[in-house]
Design goal:
The complex is a heterodimer of chains A (about 270) and B (about 350). Chain A is globular, with a radius of gyration of 22 Å. Chain A is about 70% helix and about 0% strand. In chain A, helix 7 runs antiparallel to helix 10. Chain A is mainly α and about 270 residues long. Chain B has about 350 residues and is α+β, with helices and mostly antiparallel strands. Chain B has a six-stranded mixed sheet with strand order 6-7-8-3-9-10, sandwiched between helices. In chain B, strands 13-12-11-14-20 form a five-stranded antiparallel sheet. In chain B, strand 11 and strand 12 form a beta hairpin. The longest helix of chain B is centred in the middle third of the chain and has 18 residues. Chain B is elongated. Classes of the chains: A mainly alpha (about 270), B alpha+beta (about 350). The interface between A and B is medium-sized, with 17 and 24 residues.
Chain lengths: ~270, ~350
């Protein structure tokens, strides 16, 4: 871009300042001060308190679990898609992305209706004289919600990375005597690492920070760190504590993003 | 006669209803440099892929060293492939790339290290063990791809347009390298290319293919000097292909004028095609020529001048080291043994292809 055209970015810069930079500054201010406005680290060290630490632990556990499930579901699918002829795979990718165009809240609410004690699934099960499913308000329901919502974010970077592997590189491995398993472990998997890192980042971060999924499908029994922060802002109105905890969470996100930047230098696995 | 190593028997293959190979039969001998030559879509790469095992024929058999290998997967075949765009493993060092096949065969480490050093020496890249493929030039990557294949001591090396992505100078160097390697290693090379010069330079045997059929098999000399049909004549080098009539043995009427030739057995008063290479057209003073014409174009090509001469309603392509300026009246002579007689194409299909090229 020439310097003459730089002013074209002005609206975006204005937007970033008002809605990204300023709010981040406010979080930093609230997180490092108490109600009197004096400097304190209490809001950050509060993560060590039993309740908060547990919420963070549960959040990490559930988001890691759902990232793993997403990976195990998405990798074979991405391999099939990458190996397909152009005409058919576009349609299948469309089918996978289609739910992404519907509102996130709506999709999660739909799962609530499906999983409820007297919900659709249990109606069908009782009609078939099968035992009812007691999944709503359990960690399993939260993981299900996370996987359902974030799966496309895993599929696309993996598909991107896998479809960039030259078919002749795989042929060359076979040609040199490698069987399918050896080729997968030594060639396909290592070459798709940028996509794997990118996919993990794109599932893990939103899963770690979510509060909607846990409150809708977890029934508020299981507090995730996202729920705790949300409550500090909306119910307890303790912006200082909420901001402090947000900053702790941000550290996890930054670590993850640095890792993904290291492994995905060319931006190969990224969506855009 | 050398031992037959590979036999392709009645190989047919089609993609999406499009016939790519039709009842192809080909024998490849031990320690032979065979080039499959033809325009894109002629089936040469498909033939190579069937040899490598990456695709199976619809019908027909592949026999290797007396054994039917038609349904043997690529990793169980005693041949290795050098792919068009190198297909190196970009996440591994050069040494790891070369060692890939040997590690699968569970060779001892000292053996593998020796082989890596030997292969890098052979391709003139000593000391590149710890480099990554991306840090090498195209020509170097190509040589690594060759090294990676030959350390496995295959009986046959398949090469799919391996020099296609290189610039002219590098390509010529690599052609000599390949000939040297073939002689040093004593293995069979099956080489695919659309570049006729490359084929003429390197091959023991050239297989000219078009539209899924073999047009001619022969030594570079016989392919160039005695093309069996107009397609081969046109595809290999520049040529004047002129419709003519075979009056009787050793006498042909070209553009209304009688020429002496050396071919026999075409019958009397039969329509034929003659091919005359541009370097075989001799330009002389008008009075000394068999036919007369006027120079219409002139280009300096370095080694020779390329001229076009309008004579008897035909535009003759002439290569000569003597300059005849545009507009000059000249005579044309052709020595009898430089007139190559060919049968007319039998089907309309074949004719259409010639016009296409």
């Amino acid at each position: 871009m020439t310097s003459k055209n730089k002013w074209l970015s002005a609206p975006y810069i204005l937007w970033s300042v008002v809605f990204i930079i300023v709010p981040l500054g406010m979080i930093l201010y609230y997180g490092l001060t108490d109600t009197t406005g004096a400097f304190t680290l209490d809001n950050i060290t509060a993560i060590a308190s039993a309740g908060h630490a547990k919420a963070l632990r549960v959040s990490l556990l559930l988001s890691l679990a759902s990232t793993l499930v997403c990976f195990l579901l998405a990798y074979p699918l991405a391999m099939i898609l990458a190996g397909m002829q152009t005409k058919r795979h576009n349609f299948i990718i469309l089918v996978f992305i289609l739910p992404m165009w519907m509102n996130f809240l709506l999709r999660t609410l739909a799962w609530q209706t499906l999983l409820e004690k007297n919900g659709v699934i249990n109606h069908v099960l009782s009609f078939l004289h099968l035992p009812a499913l007691k999944i709503i308000n359990t960690p399993a329901a939260i993981i299900l919600g996370m996987v359902y919502n974030f799966l496309p974010f895993m599929v696309l970077p993996l598909y991107n990375a896998l479809s960039k592997i030259d078919i002749n590189v795989i042929n060359a491995a076979h040609d040199l005597g490698a069987n399918n398993i050896y080729t997968f472990i030594r060639i396909i998997l290592p070459l798709s690492i940028p996509g794997i890192i990118s996919g993990i980042t794109m599932v893990f971060i939103p899963a770690l920070t979510t509060f909607v999924i846990s409150s809708l499908l977890g029934g508020g029994k299981l507090l995730l760190i996202g729920d705790v922060i949300e409550q500090e802002f909306t119910r307890t109105s303790n912006w200082h504590l909420g901001s402090g905890l947000s900053m702790v969470l941000m550290i996890f996100i930054l670590v993850n993003m640095v890792l993904s930047a290291i492994f995905d230098k060319d931006g190969e696995g990224s969506l855009l | 006669m050398k031992k037959e190593l590979i036999q392709l028997i009645d190989i047919s293959k089609s993609f999406d209803g499009q016939m790519v190979l039709d009842e192809l039969n080909l024998n490849i001998h031990e320690n032979e440099f065979v080039t499959l030559l033809g325009p894109s879509g002629c089936g040469k790469t498909t033939t190579l892929r069937i040899l490598g095992g990456f695709t199976g024929p619809d019908r027909g058999r592949v026999v290797f060293d007396g054994k039917d290998i038609t349904h043997i997967p690529p990793n169980k075949r005693q041949l290795n492939t050098v792919f068009q765009k190198y297909a190196l493993f970009t996440h591994m060092t050069i040494a790891e790339n070369i060692a890939f096949g040997l590690k699968i065969k569970k060779k001892p480490k000292s053996y593998i290290d020796d082989k890596i050093r030997y292969a890098l020496k052979l391709v003139n890249l000593d000391g590149y063990e710890n480099r990554m493929p991306d840090s090498l030039s195209g020509g170097q990557q190509q040589r690594i791809a060759i090294a990676r294949a030959i350390v496995n001591e295959p009986k046959v090396l398949l090469l799919d347009e391996p020099l296609g992505a290189l610039d002219l100078k590098l390509r010529q160097e690599m052609q000599y390298e390949l000939i040297r390697m073939k002689n040093e290693l004593g293995i069979t090379f099956v080489y695919v290319t659309h570049d006729q010069e490359e084929a003429l330079t390197m091959s023991d045997t050239i297989v000219v293919m078009n539209q899924g059929y073999i047009q001619q098999i022969g030594s570079p000399e016989s392919i160039y000097n005695e093309p069996e049909n107009a397609f081969v004549a046109d595809f290999i080098g520049d040529s004047n292909i002129i419709p003519a009539t075979m009056i009787e043995d050793k006498l042909v009427r070209i553009l209304g004028t009688l020429f002496a030739c050396v071919d026999t057995g075409f019958g009397n008063n039969r329509p034929v095609d003659v091919v005359i290479r541009p370097e075989d057209v001799i330009l002389v003073e008008p009075s000394e020529g068999i036919i007369q014409g006027v120079v219409s174009h002139l280009i300096f090509k370095g080694v020779h001048y390329e001229m076009e001469v309008q004579a008897c309603g035909f535009e003759w392509l002439v290569h000569s080291t003597t300059l005849f300026p545009v507009g000059k009246e000249v005579g044309i002579r052709v020595d009898p043994f430089n007139i190559q007689i060919m049968n007319k194409p039998e089907s309309v299909d074949e004719e259409a292809v010639i016009i296409d090229i």
